[in-house]
Amino acid sequence: MPASTRYDAVLIGGGIMSATLATMLTELEPDWSVLVLERLDSLGEESSSAWNNAGTGHSALCELNYTPEKADGSIDISKAVQVNEQFQLSRQFWSFLVRSGLIEDPRSFINSVPHMSFVRGKNVEYLRKRYHALADHPLFSGMQWAEDAATIVDWAPLLLQGRAPGEKIAATRSDAGTDVDFGSLTRTLLAAAARRGAEVLTGHEVKDVTRRGSGWSLSVKADDGHSAEIATPFVFVGSGGGALHLLQRSGIPEGQGFGGFPVSGEWLRCTNPEIVRRHHAKVYGQAEVGAPPMSVPHLDTRIMHGEQSLMFGPYAGWSPRFLKTGHLTDLPRSIRPHNLLPMLAVARDNVPLTTYLVKQVLQSMDARMEALRVFFPDAQAADWELLKAGQRVQVIKKGPRGGVLQFGTELVAAGDGSIAALLGASPGASTAVEVMLRLVAKCFPAHQDAWRPKLQEMVPSYGRQLGEDPQLAKETFAGTAEALQLTH
């Protein structure tokens, strides 16, 4: 059980978001008592677990869903720039922790892996326009273009192995890409926070969150059956899909109208060394019509504990659970009078998504292999195994037609800043530092002047946009690459 009955801050969930915030708070206020509570018996095992997410280090170098084509045929790069800016904040924060000695070996969680986009047929012209829209931007400097087979086979041999000669194809490549093991990073960050005084407990579930004066009372139950009531002036609910239920229990008006739509996923994994050694890249393609953004297909190199493997997917699925280790009643228990209209509106307006999910759930292994062979024509089923990915809960909130299904993350905080919850999914893990910087500004406004020098030490570009300063972008990128031992 917790060592005390009162803490300056309590963080619910042992994933990358709580790990990032705990590390920040112990740097900003070393004398604060910080408690992190995780209901499972180990840390970083839900959305942050390496095989529960793509580990891309989302920076929009290859993800085509961040650069939609507008009605006039031009490419909108605003989302790509935003996502890249966010990931650069993460790189800076991790670099600070390396230089401070709080992270000993950055290669335990981040490694250089080129990021590629790969298209065929009519999508070649779209990719060409995307390349020209991004290539001169400071955050995408060094991006390369190819539509000849000789170059593409040099970049990623499996893409051409068994492909029919003369097929119209094109690719872009950025050597600035990374593969990130967010589960390993989560455990590293929480270990660092614990060394700085934070208390980190597994096997402890928060059952209720109740307002007590200007603060909160948390009902906590441990796996051994013991219970406790914890008082705190600040609560962060970073428990992935489980955050919605606790946000609802808090009763804050800012949480009214929010619902969740759970989407599960599956991957194919290959550990055959003869195949793995011939592919060193993360290669993203175009999503199917009606598919959610998180279902963009990609063939990826993954590096975990020094071992390489390949991953292809994701194949979308559906379950009413809000967590991979959740309950079948999670979705129905989340329905409230205040979110019923938005949820019904989303169901009405997203029939193509529902149809897509049904088809994905019913597909055979042969159908999954056909999707893989778009990328790797010679792929053989015997070399691949099916794994269950993490559970995502997409945000549903009030909108102009009653409700809207939102992809991405949503930070919901009480007006007085005493409690905040993070809802949503991809590219969440990659943007953890940006989200937590927003949280500390929103929830601790009285501390901002005092904290600013430390925040700028942890994240040197804090308050500035790298994309607006090419020289700063170049220097920052080189500095973080050196600290994180990345071979760009």
Give a verbal description of the structure.
By secondary structure, this protein is of the alpha+beta class. It has one domain: FAD/NAD(P)-binding domain. The protein has 14 helices and 21 strands. Strands 4, 5, 6, 13, 14, 15, 16, 17, 18 and 19 form a ten-stranded mixed beta sheet that branches. A six-stranded mixed beta sheet has the order 8-2-1-12-21-20, sandwiched between helices. Helix 1 (16-28) crosses helix 12 (432-443) and helix 2 (78-99) packs across helix 14 (470-483). It is globular and about 70 Å long. The mean pLDDT is 94.
Sequence-ordered SSE layout with sheet pairings:
Elements: E1 9-12, H1 16-28, E2 34-37, H2 78-99, E3 110-112, E4 115-120, H3 123-134, E5 144-146, H4 149-155, E6 169-174, E7 178-180, H5 182-195, E8 199-201, E9 204-212, E10 215-222, E11 227-232, E12 235-237, H6 243-250, E13 259-270, H7 273-276, E14 282-284, E15 298-304, E16 307-317, H8 330-334, H9 337-349, H10 351-362, H11 365-373, E17 385-388, E18 392-397, E19 404-406, E20 409-413, E21 419-424, H12 432-443, H13 448-458, H14 470-483
Parallel strand pairs: 1-2, 1-12, 2-8, 4-14, 12-21
Antiparallel strand pairs: 3-7, 4-6, 5-6, 9-10, 10-11, 13-16, 13-17, 13-18, 14-15, 15-16, 18-19, 20-21
Helix pairs in contact: 1-5, 1-12, 2-14
Family: Belongs to the MQO family.
EC number: 1.1.5.4
Protein name: Probable malate:quinone oxidoreductase
